[in-house]
From TrEMBL:
First-to-last residue of the parent protein present: 9 to 247 of 514
Protein name: histidine kinase
Domain (Histidine kinase): residue spans on this chain: 20-221
Signal peptide, first to last residue: none
């Protein structure tokens, strides 16, 4: 327990420092991006696209840090969207991995819409799938299931990877907790804070044989009170 608390304290301290740094470098980076667009116009060169994409990468990391530590600094208008549609979108980014990992889609009620910050939710689902692909070392399976109950939309993402040891489960979502050599440990923090903000519940099951993440998006009619739940609506699309 002491070791666990020490880990949590250490990670929290790192989190605070890096949130401050992220905040400081976000504005200059955004300014550079703007001037880059002007220079690209004035001085055409094939190298700009490399500079652009490297910069996007840096801005992305800063955003991830901020969305974890200072979510109110990352604003995005809310809208209605279909989870199935964004999953299709995300999967196209993993097309190379899909040669070795078989992805099974079990989509029911594909027209079910949710309400919230689409890009943020997209990033969260991307982060979950990225972990699933990374967990499967060679070949394996990922199952994505989308269904609805009377008062919610339920998304499950299962992978046939090695699973997560019981004593590590409580550290999931702590910023900077990672077991990977090149991991940042920010993915699940973004996932947890995003779903919390959207009033969605997330649970993880792992018993040494794969991992299952279940996300339950509540509906306004579900009777769950509070501003969190009220931000997410279930709307039946036209057939
Ligand atoms: P990162 O991927 O950078 O390590 P994350 O926050 O995404 O950071 O994940 C934190 C840790 O949780 C991972 O390093 C890994 O140990 C564990 N983990 C997350 N998802 C899975 C999964 N599907 N299977 C096995 N371990 C996982
Ligand atoms: Mg990750």
């Amino acid at each position: 327990v002491d070791e666990h608390n020490a880990t949590l304290n250490r990670l929290a301290a790192i989190g605070e420092v890096s949130a401050g740094i992220a905040h400081e470098i976000r504005n200059p980076l955004t300014a550079v991006k703007g001037f880059l667009q002007l220079m690209e116009r004035d001085y055409p060169s094939p190298h700009w696209s490399v500079v652009q994409s490297e910069l996007e990468q840096a801005i992305g990391t800063v955003h991830e840090l901020l969305s974890v530590s200072k979510p109110n600094l990352v604003t995005e208008p809310k809208r209605q969207f279909s989870l199935c549609a964004i999953i299709e979108n995300i999967l196209s980014l993993f097309h190379k991995e899909m040669y070795r990992v078989k992805v099974h889609k079990r989509f029911h009620h594909t027209k079910a819409m949710v309400y919230g910050k689409q890009n943020q939710v997209k990033r969260a689902i991307f982060n979950l799938l990225k972990n699933a692909f990374e967990a499967i070392e060679d070949e394996g399976n990922i199952v994505i299931e989308h269904r609805r109950s009377s008062d919610s939309v339920i998304l499950t993402i299962s992978d046939s990877g090695p699973g997560i040891p019981q004593d590590k489960l409580s550290l999931l979502g702590t910023p900077f907790f990672t077991t990977k050599d090149t991991g940042t440990g920010l993915g699940l923090s973004q996932v947890y804070s995003t779903f919390y903000e959207h009033g969605a519940d997330i649970t993880v099951k792992s018993n040494g044989e794969g991992t299952v993440f279940t996300i339950i998006f509540p509906t306004v009619s579900s009777g769950i009170d509070g501003s969190r739940a009220a931000e997410l609506t279930y709307v039946e699309g036209e057939a």
